[in-house]
Amino acid sequence: MLPGAGDILPLALALVIPAAVVFLAMPRYIKFLYAKRRTTNDAHKGGDVRVPTPAGPVLIGALVVGELAAWAFYGSVVPLVLVAVVLAAGMIGLYDDLRGLGGVVKPALLALVGLFVVVAEHYYPSVYDPVVYFPLFTETGTHFIIFGLIVVASIPVASNAFNMLDAFNGEISGFTAIVSAALVVAILLRAYALSDTSASTLAIALPLLGASLAFFYFNKYPSRIFDGDSGSLAFGGMFVILSIVGGVEIAALVALIPAVLNSYYILSSVRGLVERKKMPARPTVLGSDMKLYASREAQAPTTLARMILLSGPQDERSLVRKILILCAYAGLLSLVTSVLTWLL
Amino acid sequence: MTTDAEGTKGDGSLLAMLLVITASWLLILGETYVFFVVVRPLGPPLHEGAVPSTVLKIGLTAGLGALWVVAMFVIWWLYLRAHQIPT
Q1: Most exposed among A16, A28, A173, A307, judged by the fewest C-beta atoms under 10 Å?
Q2: Residue A100 and residue A144 in contact, taking contact as beta carbons nearer than 8 Å
């Protein structure tokens, strides 16, 4: 059921409020981080260029405020589940930012967040529908256990995929804005086709788009702040649960293809779950001409950036533009998938 | 070298990566077809069927997932080999 005229204001506020929180809080928060000397070296610039990190706490706050606004407008339990997911995934990321977590501990903790969502569905069966709708065909049967296992596994997989795509200025914020836009369109098309999806589902998806678009302003080249694991895990955790509660899993998976390939190729090349800081070599090298080169070392992880740079060096801005073109293309394929799922 | 020339230098890789993403998407659609036309009709719904039928359907579905993983691995290996990067 498509949103009506009465939904325009709540939906607009669900988009604008998180963006406003980011725009208002981020400049002061950047000053705070500088004062506390919480900065890191931007490895893709020459010299010791310090950038404050992590932006996660502001991003988590913006997403929580956006979901609470959706809850205030529509009163469903789903935004509250999303608040819990964002807080839990964000806190895991924040602990990783401040103290560090092992390559296996982090996915295990994120799987517990997925388990929480399954438990929430068990007690409030309106959280999600344990059915997957496929393009061109139909939906699967209702399988609570199998679907629950997929939910538990998907949070660590998707969150780490977001985290691994967080290497260059504007990469994670641009990627999140693109995939969340694809998600909003997918939910809109589902709402057009099915009566069980309404404006309330759209309202819970819009905060991620608003927050990531606003964050792109601060994170784009040259970055004024980095998100840290707290930001990327909160984005990833929220995205995957949105795709599940919105019932648009396949369209979301297609939008995520660049991130999935990126993390899959990293895991294949380093042969296991290895923390970024402990990887044996960097995937890219900064040349004396300030351009990024693909590493020729056999033990260097294979990333999307390294694969693009194999045909020649690029400056960081140009490289990120190419990565975002790939993400936008996957977003377009996600749109086609949504059309094949809901309109044919 | 001009900036434009450098800008187009990586376009070959960009095109190749666009093709990889397209291949990945087409594989998802193709496997969806196999799932609904071949795997699903092999027996009654999981919670109603006998154990062998259930195991067969879940195994074949997992096999489709494994096929996607293997296909992406082969593409990655060929891509790095084409650029003479040891894997």
Answers
A1: A28
A2: no
In a domain, B67, yes or no: yes
B62 domain-assigned: yes
Give the pLDDT of chain B (87 residues) as one tens digit per residue.
Answer: 444 545 555 577 889 899 999 999 999 999 999 999 999 888 787 777 777 888 898 899 999 999 999 999 898 888 888 877 665
The answer to the question of residue B87 being in a domain is no
Residue environment code for B70-79, b if the CB has 16+ CB neighbours within 10 A, otherwise e: eebeebbeeb
- CB contact under 8 Å between B21 and A261, yes or no, is yes
Instruction: Tell me the HSE value of B9 on the side-chain side, using a 13 A CA sphere.
Output: 19
Nearest CA in chain B to A251: B25
Range of the domain at B62: 4-82
Instruction: Tell if the CB–CB gap between B10 and A308 is shorter than 8 Å.
Output: yes
First to last CA, chain B: 31
In-domain check, residue B58: yes
Nearest CA in chain A to B72: A261
CA distance A254 to chain B (A): 7
Q: How many domains does chain B have?
A: 1
**Record: contact A146-B18, CB cut-off 8 A:** no
pLDDT for residue B2: 43
User: Structure pTM?
Assistant: 0.93
